[in-house]
Design a protein that fits this description.
Length: 422
């Protein structure tokens, strides 16, 4: 790749491009659930990986990574054997059901392709006003250590993109890696200049060669996706290795997935688990979630459901929606933690409120039976209607709703139509 300070190019892993390339990629990179905020966090924050609500899980040791399941079955209990559907008539169908003995909530069916960590496609700068800065591939700490480059980052964070470019370009041309990374980011996002992925990749390449971990990660993502440069997953892994060695948790996470996949890196669950542990301890909720799965299934580590639940809980507390659902299920069933149906209901409510169909389904069951919370047939029906609309059906809840008085069914329909306004 020819690198010239005068001509440029890079790729910021955008959501639309991810979806376009998902069909032929061995690893799913599409983030079909969480839409990146229009006002992302400041550059000092580690870029959040996009997550997928169908609870991506890892298979027992097979090596390859498969597509996530779209619909989890509903079962009577959590066991090592496959889940079975709950019979439709297993709960009372009255307007105020008396709570039976609480059935165990099932863990959703395995789906073993966690999404890669990435940074959302930077939005086009608005026509007027001062835009909110996009999440940079660089952190404030790197800017402070880069001498005068922090002035350029300060201007960028205030939305003064041309000023940032003007301050950064002489330092970038003089070899300042933080400034080179910022120039790459500006070209990648089209901030004050025409968007140019090749020019962005060029500048990221200079910074990556100079040891900048953020540029190494960004360039790794570009090679992985093939934007601005020819797609090369081996080079992507190489850059993730370099970035991870310098402490970039998103690079550790992506590299771990490549070791689990076993294509451009050897299939090595133990190495993957170690990388995930480092990223998890650094606060990556996505790494915490996948590490929990490894402990739950004994892949690369000894099987330990208590440790698995700990990491599900850590990810849940950081807002990882699939982890919130998984942690709620484990609390409800007492897997690796003391059984606490009330706390489980609270976690399901939290995830249901932000649109997780699985959480909505579990919450509907709890409200229908009065397990862990007071029975509320209208709320149960509302959440079931919302989950069903999102593709998470449930025969038991269908029958439950059919057995409600007409006024309660109509109230549930109206509440579902108002959601999330209520």
């Amino acid at each position: 790749m020819m690198r010239s300070p005068g001509v440029a190019v890079v790729v910021f892993l955008g959501l639309s491009a991810l979806a376009a390339n998902a069909q032929d990629a061995p690893i799913v990179l599409t983030p079909p659930y969480a839409v990146p905020d229009a006002t992302p966090p400041p550059a000092a924050a580690e870029p959040r990986a996009i997550v997928n609500p169908p609870l991506p899980r890892l298979k027992p040791p097979t090596g390859a990574v498969a597509a996530p399941a779209t619909n989890a079955p509903v079962a009577d209990s959590v066991a090592e054997t496959p889940a079975t559907e709950t019979p439709a008539g297993s709960a009372p169908l009255t307007s105020a059901p008396s709570p039976p003995e609480a059935p165990a909530l099932p863990t959703p069916a395995p789906a073993d392709r966690p999404p890669m960590a990435s940074t959302p496609e930077p939005p086009a700068p608005p026509a007027g006003g001062v835009p909110t800065p996009t999440p940079a591939a660089v952190t404030a700490g790197d800017a402070e250590s880069a001498g005068g480059a922090d002035l350029a980052y300060g201007a960028f964070q205030r939305g003064l993109y041309l000023s940032a470019f003007g301050l950064a370009i002489p330092r970038a041309e003089a070899g300042d890696t933080a400034a080179q990374t910022l120039i790459g980011l500006i070209y990648e996002g089209g901030y004050g200049v025409p968007r140019d992925y090749e020019e962005a990749a060029n500048w990221y390449g200079f910074a990556a060669d100079g040891g900048d971990r953020e540029a190494q990660f960004a360039l790794g993502m570009m090679y992985l996706e093939g934007r601005g440069i020819e797609r090369d997953r081996t080079k992507a892994a190489d850059y993730f290795e370099e970035s991870a060695a310098s402490g970039k948790s998103a690079a550790m996470y992506n590299l771990a997935l490549l070791y689990l996949e076993g294509q451009v890196r050897p299939h090595d669950p133990a190495r993957a688990a170690e990388l995930l542990r480092q990223a998890a301890e650094a606060g990556s909720s996505d790494a915490q979630y996948v590490l929990a799965q490894l402990y739950d299934e004994g892949r690369g580590v000894g099987r330990d459901r208590t440790v698995a639940t700990h990491w599900f809980a850590e990810a849940a507390r950081l807002g990882h929606i699939p982890a919130q659902v998984e942690y709620g299920i484990r609390l409800f069933n007492g897997i690796g933690v003391d059984k606490d149906e009330e706390a489980a209901a609270a976690w399901f409510k939290r995830a249901a409120d932000v649109g997780s169909p699985i959480a909505q389904n579990r919450l509907a069951r709890i409200l229908a039976t009065g397990s862990g919370t007071d029975a509320d047939p209208v709320e149960a029906a509302k959440w079931h209607l919302l989950a069903t609309k999102a593709g998470k059906g449930d025969d038991f809840l269908d029958a439950f709703v059919d057995g409600l008085p007409e006024d309660q069914r109509q109230a549930a329909v109206a509440a579902a139509q108002r959601w999330p306004a209520d």
